Amino acid sequence: RGYLNRPELTAERFLPDPFSAQAEARLYKSGDLGRWLADGNIAYVGRNDFQVKIRGFRIELGEIEARLAACEGVRDAIVIAREDQPGDKRLVAYVIAQAGAEEGALSAT
């Protein structure tokens, strides 16, 4: 039905359903990308954002990157989800230090 007390987010994510005859029918804009197959099925292609799912939680990588980039001495940061061992997906962050920043360790669990 929508997001509690967030009408702007509800309007952004719940769009009129062009496939329904009901005037109030809505589609949810999930961020997942797919394509129609010749047999009528839909094949999952990926996402249209940088959100990943790890251990059942959806994580927006851009939010973590922004927090890291805001740290003193950090010029830029990027976060990716790596799965070096099947079934063991983990977040990995890479940072670029600002010129003249002291070396140090950045650790997150």
UniProtKB/TrEMBL annotation:
Cellular-component GO terms for this entry: cytosol
Biological source species: Duganella violaceipulchra
GO terms, biological process: amino acid activation for nonribosomal peptide biosynthetic process; secondary metabolite biosynthetic process
GO terms, molecular function: phosphopantetheine binding
Protein name as annotated: AMP-binding protein
PANTHER family tied to this protein: NONRIBOSOMAL PEPTIDE SYNTHETASE, PLIPASTATIN SYNTHASE SUBUNIT B
